[in-house]
Design goal:
- By secondary structure, this protein is an alpha/beta fold.
- The protein has a single domain (9-244), classed as Rossmann fold.
- The protein has seven helices and ten strands.
- The chain has helices at 9-19, 48-56, 72-76, 100-109, 127-133, 225-228, 231-244; strands at 23-26, 35-42, 61-67, 86-91, 113-116, 149-160, 174-182, 191-195, 204-211, 214-219.
- Strands 1-3-2-4-5-10-9-8-6-7 form a ten-stranded mixed sheet.
- Strand 9 (204-211) and strand 10 form a beta hairpin.
- The model is unreliable at 1-31 (pLDDT under 50).
C-alpha cells in the first residue's frame, strides 16, 4: 500500500527526531474553549506535513501527535490519557499488547474516537479491534475470499447517506481522488454516513457506532494530499471532531 509519493520512513524518523517525536500545534482558539485531540500514527508512511495541515485548518482545536514506536504506546497505557476530548487513529500498528488493557478501559468509560483510512487495517490479530472500529481490513497481495483489496488514485463519487447528521452538515455528494478499499465489511449496527458505488470500493465508507460507552466514527477517506486538501474531506474531519467532542 506504499507509494513513491509518500515520504520515506527514514525521512519521517529524521523529522520526528528534530521535532522531538511529538508534534503539538495550537490552533485558533474560540469562545467555546479548545478541543484537545490526540493524533496517533505509525505503521504506514504518509505525508505528515500535508496530513497535519488538515488539522491546522480547524479552529478551536489543539492537537498532539504521537507515533507508535515513538511514544504512542506509552501514552496510551497511562492513566492520564483521558485528558483528550477526542482520539484520532491514523495508524497500521500491530503491537498493541502493552497498551490494550488501558485503552479498553478508556473505551469502556466513553472515550470519543475517530478512525481514518488505513487504521482499518491495524491490529490484524486482535479480533476485538474490528468491533471497536466497526469493521476491519485484512489486506493481502491479491484478491481472494476474505482478503481486502485496495486501489490507488481512484476518482470516485461519495454519496452522503445521512444528510441530517451533524458530521455531514454542510456537505452534499462530492468527488474525491483517493484510495479505495474492498472487502472490509462493517458490523451490522453501524449508522451509515457515506457510501460510494465505485466498483473498486466497498459501498459503505463512513459510519458512526458505539463501542461500550464510546462514540466511534470511521471515515475511509484520507490516503494522501489529494484527500487531505479536499475541502469536503476537511469538513468531514472537522465535523467528526466537533461531534465527538460535544458536551
Amino acid at each position: 500500500m506504499l507509494e513513491s509519493r509518500h515520504i520515506s520512513l527514514i525521512s519521517v524518523v529524521v523529522a520526528l527526531g528534530v521535532l522531538g517525536v511529538a508534534a503539538a500545534a495550537p490552533l485558533q482558539a474560540g469562545a467555546g474553549g479548545q478541543i484537545e485531540v490526540l493524533i496517533v500514527t505509525g505503521g504506514h508512511s504518509f505525508d505528515e506535513q500535508a496530513f497535519l495541515a488538515a488539522f491546522d485548518s480547524i479552529g478551536n482545536v489543539r492537537y498532539e501527535h504521537k507515533r507508535f514506536g515513538r511514544g504512542a504506546e506509552t501514552l496510551l497505557a497511562r492513566e492520564s490519557i483521558d485528558r483528550y476530548d477526542v482520539m484520532v487513529f491514523y495508524d497500521m500498528n500491530n503491537e498493541y499488547r502493552s497498551h490494550r488493557d488501558a485503552w479498553l478501559e478508556l473505551l469502556r468509560a466513553g472515550q470519543p474516537t475517530l478512525f481514518l483510512h488505513h487504521a482499518l487495517g491495524a491490529n490484524t490479530d486482535w479480533a476485538e479491534y474490528g468491533n471497536i472500529v466497526g469493521a476491519r481490513a485484512n489486506f493481502g497481495p491479491k484478491p481472494a475470499p476474505g482478503v481486502t483489496t485496495w486501489k490507488h488514485d481512484v476518482e470516485f463519487k461519495v454519496h452522503i447517506a445521512d444528510t441530517a447528521h451533524p458530521i455531514t452538515r454542510g456537505l452534499s455528494d462530492f468527488t474525491i481522488l483517493d484510495e479505495t478499499y474492498k472487502n472490509s465489511f462493517p458490523v451490522e449496527d453501524v449508522h451509515v454516513l457515506l457510501t460510494t458505488e465505485h466498483e473498486s470500493s466497498d459501498r459503505v465508507i463512513g459510519w458512526t457506532h458505539k463501542y461500550e460507552k464510546s462514540p466511534i466514527v470511521y471515515i475511509q477517506l484520507g490516503h494522501g494530499p489529494s484527500a487531505y486538501n479536499n475541502r469536503h474531506f476537511r469538513l468531514l474531519l472537522e465535523n467528526s471532531i466537533r461531534w465527538l467532542a460535544r458536551p
